[in-house]
Automatic annotation (TrEMBL):
It comes from Amycolatopsis viridis. This is GTPase HflX. Residues 190-212 are annotated as: Disordered. The lineage of its organism: Bacteria, Bacillati, Actinomycetota, Actinomycetes, Pseudonocardiales. GTPase that associates with the 50S ribosomal subunit and may have a role during protein synthesis or ribosome biogenesis. The keyword Nucleotide-binding applies.
Amino acid sequence: MTELTYTNPALDPSTGELELSDRASLRRVAGLSTELSDITEVEYRKLRLERVVLVGVWTEGTAEQSEASLAELARLAETAGSEVLEGLVQRRSKPDPATYIGSGKVRELFDIVVATGADTVICDGELSPGQLRQLEERLKVKVIDRTALILDIFAQHARSREGKAQVELAQLQYLIPRLRGWGESLSRQAGGRAGGANGGVGLRGPGETKLETDRRRINKRVAKLRREIAAMDTIRATKRGRRVANEVPSVAIVGYTNAGKSSLLNAITGAGVLVENALFATLDPTTRRAATPDGRTFTLTDTVGFVRHLPHQLVDAFRSTLDETADADLLLHVVDGSDPAPEEQVNAVRQVLTEITASHESPLPPELIVINKADAADELSLVRLRHLLPGALVVSARTGEGVPELVEALAERLPRPDVVVEALVPYTRGELVARAHAEGEVLAEEHLPEGTRLSARVRPDVASALEAYAVNGSPA
């Protein structure tokens, strides 16, 4: 006798849960290091951070702000898969042009690296190629900056073909000015007058062959990636054009990384995208269809999270994705209510949004601020945020608190069809009634012996279809 097995689709894991389990299965095991000993090859391989020491330069703001910035760098390092051992902050008017933190602090940092057994130093800023080389020579360990750390996280978390191409483009743009080839990997051409040429006997060589070859190959790869991303932009623009042609209102979810944007998308639409308590957990934009309480359809798009000092390479590479925010009808700005300094997160997000919309030469869409994680925030912080951000809604995507009120607020803010019609539609044309419900806003409906009497607010094309059945003349 054959045994039948029944499955319940409602109990099947979502796409986000499957991705989260895959990501958890690839966690690094402490103590199993496969790092190369040659630090000069650090840019030629994928970064694998393990035991790290953090260092930052405090140039402006308060001591609390500098410590918060270093704490954020620690969370970034942990997201990349490393163990943070120690953190230092140097008070300076500006970073040292040679070593970023000054020669005295470099000696102190070297002692800490030796004492803790760290194999990596992460700087809370973008290092110049010269600063990077000087620090590695003096500290004798791998040194990376904040930009390389964020790029590494993006490389780990990118899933779609477009996301991987955008991250690779950003990495190559960061790598080009930092290319190095020395010793065995570089054929140097000696100088001098011997032999009447630029080098003596036996010293004339092909020059910086390895370095120039690498630079040429990278430039070719960058050009190819730009072409691929441009082709993907065409596909994205076509999909966006269809929504615009159908006049489907769009809402873009923006906010600081780990503010709960994906959780909010799941709470409103049941999208089931990946949710993780980590920085930059999701990179690939997700668009889902939702409906207002009165039946109007709109789309919700989850965009990549922002962060303070977001690398400009990422802004350029992800511009096609971030353009979704400039073309939206409404921005749903999600703020982490449990963060110690949420107002700084708001300023960082608005700064990136201003940079994006500047290229469009169009104003920012209307903004609705949502304070998320109300279940994890204390009441005093919520009161302060309500004062700082008047008109903001307080929700908890995890518990569902305030989500129905948020959907109602979205319905009020979204654009409505601008043509009001009064029509008596015969029952043989029921598709027109269904279209009015699906694409417009039905104000009143009554079923009569002659047909369905409608009072609806619809788009011009739907109004034209209903014009033949208009009551008391053409649609208003």
